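Every protein is a chain of amino acids, and every chain bends into a shape of its own. Below is the pair of lines this work produces for a single protein:
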Amino acid sequence: MEETVSRLGERMKRVRLEQRLTLRDLASRAGVSAGTVQKIEAGRLVPSVEVFMKITKALRRRASYFLGDEDDAVDVRVIHRRARKLLDAGARIRIESVAETLREPKMEAYLITVPARARSGRPLGFSGELLFFCNKGTVDFAVRGTKEVLRGGDSIHFKAAIPHRFQNNGAAAAELLVVWSPA
């Protein structure tokens, strides 16, 4: 985990400097504090998913760029369960990367474990498309003000720019597979 956090911060700083942005420039673009950016770059802070997505969007890079292996351009990858990269999503939600960067990537995929009564936070919206597949449990989605309930085997697919959030109102943990295809 520490290696992933360190690599994430190093890559963010490298991209920021390549784009000739100051800490304040990036913070302003992303809508976060310069202190937050500085702590992430130094490997002293694991960003929430929301902050991570804001910064990747501000740097105009895919999230996978910051999480993948150093400049590996391959056509096939196998990701074993024990080797999945874990992202800290806060709110007890566990997010594991189940796809690694390929040459010219078109998508990213994550396994999300949502404990009972946990939720994603305020509505999010970003570029591309999202597909959530409910592996087990029950998850309530709010997409464009409409509530949809996903149960094991159900899925929801929508444009990621539409503000959305999810919540597990059940008594047991739910598991979602999410595939994101950035624009």
Remarks:
- The chain has a mean pLDDT of 86.
